[in-house]
Structures are given as structure tokens and as C-alpha cells.
Amino acid sequence: MISIDYALTGMTSLRYFMPIVELGNNLNISSNFYIGRSKKYNCPLKHIEILESISKRYKIPFKPIEDLKFSSNPSLYVEADGISHKSIESKSYTVNFCTDYIVSYRNYIDKVDHLVFPSEYFSSKIDKNYLHKFLNIGSPKFDSKIDQNLVRKKYDLIVCTRCAYFCKQPNQFIIKCKQHLTETGNAFVDWGLGDHWRFENFKVGWIRDGEHEKAYFDNNFLYSCFWSKDLEEDSEVKKFWKAVKLNNFNYSNNNTLSEVIEEEVPVVVEYPTKLIKTLFLWPESPQLYIATLI
């Protein structure tokens, strides 16, 4: 009987694993989930009730990630985006997130047997020397050919998440977004402050004590953030700033949040918006999301 081992260190991976699990159940293929701890909000050990529900519904045994090295499963091992705890001899497959894989795949491509993509559209974006490792499932959504004339048209909706953090010229970025919108179109652009990238030394912004935060690969630094002084009165912003101070990250009580942002964010941008929504998360590792609609 075929069996598949999964390394689960983040609940986010379930969105990629569960369709495979469900199909496997229909084909008499069993599944084993090996649970690992992480410092992030989606750590599986913070969501035990959900895991128990999934285990009962899909008949999946859950085991500690440390037991993976004792697995005698000769069949398949699946992980998400190279988050590897592999120490067994079975074939290993990485189901990637289709977001930052274009740069992050270099961190794990030599450690896995295959990378699984929704379609050839995604695998065509990275080094062809690894073509023998690519598995393209096939998806009508992505396999269709793109009409370049349509690409040049304007859009009713533009969505940008995380990308803006890395922008050195955010004002120009916003101008370009507006140029590509239809007359009644909207652009959703989110920004952030705080511990989004899990650096050891906490920062409200991106530069503090000589350390400049980066993500995905070397020299890919974070530069910008949306901010308005009026946001200091926002309830979610107040929670964020209070949590920063309670955690004793060595910020002076004499400093305002606006002053700290000005000090730690290389490029602060402000522009007219139709709507601003804020969200504070994780009191022990404070994060603030600032979503803007333009």
C-alpha cells in the first residue's frame, strides 16, 4: 500500500496538502503528518483542536517531526516550499507556494527529488538546469496563453501584498498602479511594520542598530512603508505600539511611534486613499499590517 509522509511545520501548508490527502484517500493511499514546532502564528502546536478534527475526519495519524527519521515508509515524502526535515530515503516532493519560490527555490532545490507546480507557467520562470526535477500538474487557469494586447489594458483591480515593502521608490510605484487602473478601478496595497521576518533583534521598521532587514535572498532589503501621523490614534496601531513597549525592546517612552518609523524606515510614503484598514497581531512578536485601497 502506498503511503505519503508530510512535514507540517505551519498550518498554511494544509491548503496544499489536503487536496492531495483527499485524493489519496479515494485511491487507497494513506497519509502520515509529522508535526513540527515553529515560532510563527501558524505553528501547528497552537492549533491542536483543528489538527484533531482533521485527523478524525481524514484518518490521518499525527506524529512528532522528530519521529520522521524513524519512518519506514518507502514511498513518498511531501513538504511545503523546501521546509525540510527529511532524513529518510523515500522520494521527496516539495509543493511550492507559487509566491517567492522564484528566489527561494535555490535554498532547497538540491535537497529534494521533485518540485511540484500547478502548471508549466510557474516552472518556466526558474533555472532550466533543474528541468528534470519539475512536475507540472496542469491547470487551465495558468495554461492558457496570454494575449499581450490584453496585458497592456487597464485593470479593475490590482492587488499587491508584501511587494511594496521592498520598494525604493514607493511614490512611483503608487503612480504606476493608478496609471494601470480603469476609471472606476481599485488597487489594494498592503504595508507592514514590526516582526514580519522573524529577525532576532526586533525592529519597528527595517533598520536598527546597524542591521538592515532582508528577505528571500541576500541583499533583498526592505525599504518602505505607508504612514500617516493620524494613524497614531488608530486602535490597532495603539495596540501594536503598546505591545512593543511591553516587550521591552528598548524603545524610549519619550519617542512617538511616528518618530521611530521616521528613524527606522528608509522611505516613508503617504498618499490619498479610499480606505485604510489596520491589523495588529502577535503580542509577543508584534506585527502591524496597514492595508490601503486607492
Write a concise keyword list for the protein shown above:
26% strand, 9 helices, 24% helix, alpha/beta, four-stranded mixed beta sheet, Rossmann fold, 294 residues, 2 domains
Question: Largest beta sheet: what is the strand line-up?
Answer: 3-2-1-4-5-6-7
Helix/strand class:
alpha/beta
Distance N to C terminus: 54 Å
Order of helices and strands: EHEHEEEHEHEHHEHEEEEHHEEE
Spans of at least 5 consecutive residues whose pLDDT stays below 50 are none
Description:
- Strands 3-2-1-4-5-6-7 form a 7-stranded parallel β-sheet. A 4-stranded mixed β-sheet has the order 8-9-15-14.
- It has helices at 14-26, 48-58, 101-104, 120-123, 140-143, 148-151, 170-179, 235-246, 257-264, and strands spanning 3-8, 30-35, 62-64, 76-80, 91-95, 114-117, 134-136, 155-160, 181-194, 207-208, 211-212, 224-226, 267-269, 275-281, 287-293.
- The chain has 2 domains: 3-143, 3-Layer(aba) Sandwich (Rossmann fold); 148-293, no CATH class.
- It has 294 residues and is of the alpha/beta class.
Helix and strand arrangement:
Blueprint: E1 3-8, H1 14-26, E2 30-35, H2 48-58, E3 62-64, E4 76-80, E5 91-95, H3 101-104, E6 114-117, H4 120-123, E7 134-136, H5 140-143, H6 148-151, E8 155-160, H7 170-179, E9 181-194, E10 207-208, E11 211-212, E12 224-226, H8 235-246, H9 257-264, E13 267-269, E14 275-281, E15 287-293
Parallel strand pairs: 1-2, 1-4, 2-3, 4-5, 5-6, 6-7, 8-9, 12-13
Antiparallel strand pairs: 9-15, 10-11, 14-15
